[in-house]
Amino acid sequence: EVQLVQSGAEVKKPGESLKISCKGSGYSFITYWIAWVRQMPGKGLEWMGIIYPGDSDTRYSPSFQGQVTISADKSISTAYLQWLDLKASDTAMYYCARQVMVAGPAEFWGQGTLVTVSS
Amino acid sequence: QSVLTQPPSVSGAPGQRVTISCTGSSSNIGARYDVNWYQQLPGTAPKLLISGIGSRPSGVPDRFSGSKSGTSASLAITGLQAEDEADYYCQSYDSSLSGWVFGGGTKLTVL
């Protein structure tokens, strides 16, 4: 069974750093892309970027380029989303999702990680 | 402002048919990239409903169907049921952004 299991909810202060994770199981982790999607409270879905764990090919949405870092450790089938300097506006639910191709649909989704940034 | 435009809300009575539109441009839907649809029930992660033209993952009822023409796409839901009440998002690939784009989402209310 394909599963994407994300790390738990986080509460951070502005200016702090954070790395959340998405662990894939039940499939060959290195042969599928992993996307990250943001959903701010009460708002819609926003694509942040994508990584191919097989060779770490990474693409970012222009809106998130330079704001976050996407990475993966194929040895433990885990993708990451990282911030170095959190802002209150980063408060959101973050989802990872698996897809076959860059332009393809997200067939499987993680359960989401809620990040709250507040002083 | 989302790259793909959806109506904020639609509604229908049980058993009725509703459609949700998704309007894009020549760099996404009009460039012949597939349009995918997701259903997000309250408090849960999005779930793939329709991929490409009408391909439904296992478990998705055939009451859900997708279509596309030019720079627009539509999701149709027939035989509306109370459990269909959710947010629906369209998504495509955009060649100018080199990534996904989403619609702003449509809240479906079953009256």
The chain-level mean pLDDT of chain B equals 94
Cα radius of gyration of chain B in angstroms: 13 Å
Quickly count the helices of chain B: 0
Total E-strand runs of chain A: 11
Distance N terminus to C terminus of chain A? 40 Å
Average pLDDT taken over every residue of chain A? 96
Largest sheet of chain B: 6 strands, mixed
pLDDT < 50 runs, ≥5 residues of chain A: none
The poorly predicted ranges of chain B are none
- Main beta-sheet strand count, sense and barrel state of chain A: 7 strands, mixed
Please provide the count of β strands of chain B. Answer: 9
Number of helical stretches of at least 4 residues of chain A: 0
Percent of sequence in beta strands of chain A: over 45%
Helical percentage of chain A: under 10%
Q: What can you tell me about this protein's structure?
A:
The complex is a heterodimer of chains A (119) and B (111). With 119 residues, chain A is mainly β. Chain A has strands at 3-6, 10-12, 18-25, 33-39, 45-52, 57-60, 69-73, 78-83, 92-99, 106-109, 113-117. In chain A, strands 2, 4, 5, 6, 9, 10 and 11 form a 7-stranded mixed beta sheet that branches. In chain A, strands 1-3-8-7 form a 4-stranded antiparallel beta sheet, with no helix packed on it. Chain A is globular, with a radius of gyration of 13 Å. The termini of chain A are far apart. Chain B is globular and about 40 Å long. In chain B, 0% of the residues lie in helices and 44% in strands. In chain B, the strands form 2 sheets. In chain B, strands 1, 3, 4, 7, 8 and 9 form a 6-stranded mixed beta sheet that branches. In chain B, strands 2-6-5 form a 3-stranded antiparallel beta sheet, with no helix packed on it. Chain B is mainly beta and 111 residues long. In chain B, a hairpin with a 4-residue loop joins β7 (86-94) and β8 (99-102). Chain B has no helices and 9 strands. Chain B has strands spanning 9-12, 18-23, 36-40, 47-50, 64-69, 72-77, 86-94, 99-102, 106-110. Chain A binds chain B through residues 35, 37, 44-47, 49-50, 59-62, 95, 97, 102-107, 109-112, and chain B through 2, 33-34, 36, 38, 40, 45-48, 51-52, 57, 87, 89, 91, 93, 97-105.
